[in-house]
Amino acid sequence: QLQLVESGGGLVQPGGTLRLACAASGFTMENYAIGWFRQAPGKEREGISCILPSGQRPTYTDSVKGRFTAAKDNAGNAAYLQMNNLQPEDTAVYSCAAAYACGGGPSDFFSWGPGTQVTVSA
Questions:
Q1: What local confidence, expressed as pLDDT, does residue 109 receive?
Q2: Does residue 3 contact residue 111 with C-beta atoms inside 8 Å?
Q3: How far apart are CA 65 and CA 48, in angstroms?
Q4: Kind of pairing between the strands at 10-12 and 116-120
Q5: Phi and psi based region of residue 75 (left: phi greater than 0; alpha: psi -120 to 50; beta: remaining)
Q6: Distance between CA atoms of 4 and 25, rounded to whole angstroms?
Q7: pLDDT of residue 104
Q8: Per-10-residue mean pLDDT for the chain, 122 residues long?
Q9: Do the Cβ atoms of 88 and 116 come closer than 8 Å?
Q10: Could you write out the DSSP letters of every residue in 85-103?
Q11: Which of 10, 23, 34, 116 is deepest in the core (most CB within 10 A)?
């Protein structure tokens, strides 16, 4: 069974940092792209980053460019999202999911993790 589980969320002050992890089981992460998504209360799910199976060329949505960095550790079967300079508008449940390639919408992703809450507040 293909599973992804996120960890690393929490409460942080504005300007703070968090590093989310996405651990895979039941499949080899090096064969899949990993997307990061978030959903704030009352808002639609937003795709924020995608990284290729090789771990190269991550892409980002404009709102997180320059602040978030996606990485992939294929040997460790995990992916990471480093989030710097967090702001209250980054508050959301963050999830990772797998796909065969980047560039598609949420319907192209599978094995969604349960998500981890990130709250940015003073």
A1: 96
A2: yes
A3: 9
A4: parallel
A5: alpha
A6: 6
A7: 86
A8: 94 98 92 97 96 94 98 95 98 97 93 96 96
A9: no
A10: S--GGG-EEEEEEEESSSS
A11: 34
